[in-house]
Amino acid sequence: MLHLLYLVAFTVIAFLAIGNLLRSLFTVSMDSQRRYSHPGSSSTDWGQSPLMASRSRYKSVPHPELLDETGNPINEPLLVMRSMSVDDARERLDALFNSSPGTPTERQEEG
Description:
Blueprint: H1 2-33, H2 50-56, H3 86-99, H4 104-110
């Protein structure tokens, strides 16, 4: 009898989880297809309901790292990688290691 109770409970939980997953997917797909109105245009221009228009009234603010000193969006890549040889990378790592405090060369000079 206890096995039957577990089976029913986990079946109900599985249906609730799948229902929640489908509801979330539907919500995400609707949000991705939502058209945002331009400042100054009304919500009826885009065919939005008043509820959707009230949500899109708030202008999204970009992250501060995506803005320059004057507050304008940056139009350049944020990560630029330069290729370098293995020997160059080894030399730079060795220089960093040797310049750090407590390196073995300092200990040998002291003793």
